[in-house]
Design goal:
Blueprint (H helix, E strand, L loop, with lengths): L8 H5 L1 H26 L30 E2 L14 H5 L5 E7 L7 E9 L8 H5 L5 E2 L17 E2 L1 H14 L1 H24 L1
Helix pairs in contact: 5-6
Bound molecules: iron/sulfur cluster (2 copies).
One iron/sulfur cluster binds next to α3.
Length: 199
C-alpha cells in the first residue's frame, strides 16, 4: 500500500487538532474545578480530582537512580574529595561548573578546589560531570531538585560549601532530610519576602 506523505489542506490548517486539544483542556479544567468544589463540601471524596503533585507542599519519594542536585563527596575526615582536575568542567556541555584550584597543604594531594561552583540555571542535569570524575568526588544522588525560585542569578549558584553540606546531611540524617531542608528553606524565604514587602 502506498504511504501518503503530503498533508491535506484541512490537515495543514491544524484546526481539527487545535479544537481537539482545546476540548481536552477544557474537559480537564472543568472536571477538576467541579471535583475540587465538591471535595470542599465533603462530596465525591473518593473521586480523585487531579494528579498533579502540589510541590513543594507535597513531594514524591524519588527512585534510587533519580539524578538530583549535585553534592561533593567527602573524605573520612570531612575534607573535600575533589582534586580540582577540571575533568567535570571540561565534560560539562552547559559550561556551568566553575573551579578555582589551589595547592593542597598535604604533599600527597596535588590540588584541591578553593572554589567549586555550579550555575544551576545553566545545568541540564545530564550527569556528564559525575561520569567524568575519576575519583567519585561529585554525585547527583541527593534526591532533591534545583532551587525553584530566587531573585537574582547568584541565588541559583551552588557553592562548594552548599555542595559539601549535602554530603554531610545525607550521611547524618538520610535522604529525606535534604528535601525537608529544601522545603523549610522555601518557607523561610517566603516569610522573609512577605516581611520585606510589608516594610
Ligand atoms: S549535570 Fe551536566 S550540565 Fe549539569 S553540571 Fe553536570 S555536566 Fe554540567
Ligand atoms: S569533581 Fe571530580 S572531575 Fe571535577 S574537578 Fe573534582 S575530581 Fe576532577
Amino acid at each position: 500500500m502506498k504511504r501518503r506523505t503530503e498533508m491535506s489542506f484541512s490537515e495543514k490548517l491544524y484546526l481539527g487538532e487545535i479544537l481537539r486539544g482545546l476540548a481536552v483542556t477544557m474537559y480537564r479544567f472543568w472536571r477538576n474545578l467541579s471535583l475540587h468544589g465538591l471535595h470542599a463540601v465533603g462530596l465525591y471524596k473518593d473521586v480523585r480530582a487531579s494528579v498533579t503533585t502540589q510541590y513543594p507542599d507535597e513531594y514524591k519519594t524519588y527512585p534510587d537512580n533519580y539524578r538530583g542536585s549535585h553534592r561533593l563527596t567527602l573524605k573520612e575526615e570531612g575534607s573535600v574529595r575533589c582534586t580540582a582536575c577540571f575533568l567535570c568542567a571540561t565534560a560539562c556541555p552547559a559550561n556551568c561548573i566553575f573551579i578555582e584550584a589551589g595547592e593542597h597543604p598535604d604533599p600527597e594531594v596535588e590540588k584541591f578546589p578553593l572554589r567549586y561552583e555550579i550555575d544551576t540555571l545553566r545545568c541540564i542535569y545530564c550527569g556528564m560531570c559525575v561520569e567524568a570524575c575519576p575519583c567519585d568526588a561529585i554525585r547527583m544522588d541527593t534526591y532533591v531538585h534545583p532551587k525553584i525560585w530566587g531573585f537574582n542569578r547568584a541565588d541559583f549558584v551552588e557553592t562548594k560549601s552548599v555542595l559539601m553540606d549535602r554530603s554531610t546531611i545525607l550521611a547524618e540524617r538520610g535522604r529525606t532530610a535534604l528535601m525537608e531542608d529544601q522545603i523549610a528553606g522555601y518557607e523561610q524565604e517566603e516569610v522573609e519576602l512577605w516581611e520585606r514587602i510589608k516594610n
